[in-house]
Amino acid sequence: MKYKTIIDKLSNRTPTLLGHDQFSKCSVLLPLIEKDDELHVLFEVRAFHLNRQPGEICFPGGKMDPNDKNAQEAAIRETVEELGIEKTNITDVFPLDYIVSPFDTIIYPFVATIRHPHKMKPNKEEVAEIFTVPLSFFQQTEPEVYYVHFKAEPEPNFPFDKIPNGENYHWRPRKMDEHFYYYKNKVIWGLTARIIYHFIELIQKD
């Protein structure tokens, strides 16, 4: 291959995440609403008949569709479908940091304001209930943090004889932190808690 061909292929290329095409992509929306003269965060409880994570607390969101122009559009579409609101009632949409999960998924979170929340008609096929938590609760409450540890287990035919130290190779340990918030009778944890924790960090930065 000629040098110029290589330069042509790399010129003006925008780098992305290595293996990006092999990941599932999801978008979620952290909704803010005005309630009782203060800001609240809105959450969903997933319908109990769903195959995946039934009954868990989450934000509106889901897998990106091929027809979605981008991650933000996917988050808005999912929110409209799940909360039964008009797209025009979702305003001031801003991206948060995206997350690469250990489970081959990239999650794109956004925060937005929901206007006229009294008009919401949650989709019972996906949402068992909705509830809100004052934003001040998260600003004043430190979550409990626990860790999930992952162990490297090479497959049986892994070529240990081709690498230094063979079967005694020192695999780097890995852990994932899980945040937990407890509000009244609700347990907000996992990815949802991690996103709200990140959001609070951003808005409270000096």
Automatic annotation (TrEMBL):
Residue span, Nudix hydrolase domain: 23-160
Cofactors demanded by this protein: Mn(2+); Mg(2+)
Keyword NADP: no
Pfam hit, one: NUDIX
Keywords: Hydrolase, Magnesium, Manganese, Metal-binding
MF (Gene Ontology): coenzyme A diphosphatase activity; metal ion binding
InterPro entries from the UniProt entry: CoAse, NUDIX_hydrolase-like_dom_sf, NUDIX_hydrolase_dom
UniProt-listed PANTHER family: MITOCHONDRIAL COENZYME A DIPHOSPHATASE NUDT8, NUDIX HYDROLASE
Protein name, per record: 8-oxo-dGTP pyrophosphatase MutT (NUDIX family)
Organism of origin: Paranoxybacillus vitaminiphilus
